[in-house]
Design a protein that fits this description.
This protein is α+β, with helices and mostly antiparallel strands. It has a domain at 1-42: YefM-like fold. The protein has 4 helices and 3 strands, in the order E-H-H-E-E-H-H. It has helices at residues 5-10, 12-20, 47-50, 68-76; strands at residues 2-4, 26-31, 34-40. It has a 3-stranded mixed beta sheet with strand order 1-2-3. Strand 2 (26-31) and strand 3 form a beta hairpin. The relative contact order is 0.13.
């Protein structure tokens, strides 16, 4: 879909609704018939796809939890 700048300005909300409803994947904005910009829908990545994204990217040391009690004591004045 292509619209001119004036139409994009006056119908911006309508164009956004078109993208949200997935009627179009993108809308091209043109000046004097020449494309100059593109409006696209942003597809959020579901949280389920983000969990575990760093799996295998780093290795925690074996003693990673060794100082947990000391850190907890510093943060809670020793009262857990």
């Amino acid at each position: 879909m292509q619209v001119n700048i004036l139409e994009a300005k006056t119908e911006f909300s309508k164009l956004i609704r078109i993208l949200e409803s997935r009627q179009e994947d993108s809308i091209t904005v043109a000046r004097n018939g020449k494309p100059v910009a593109r409006i696209v829908r942003i597809d959020d990545v579901p949280v389920a796809n983000r969990i575990g994204i760093a799996q295998g990217k780093f290795k925690a040391p074996d003693d990673f939890d060794a100082d947990n009690e000391e850190i907890a004591a510093m943060l809670t004045d020793g009262k857990l």
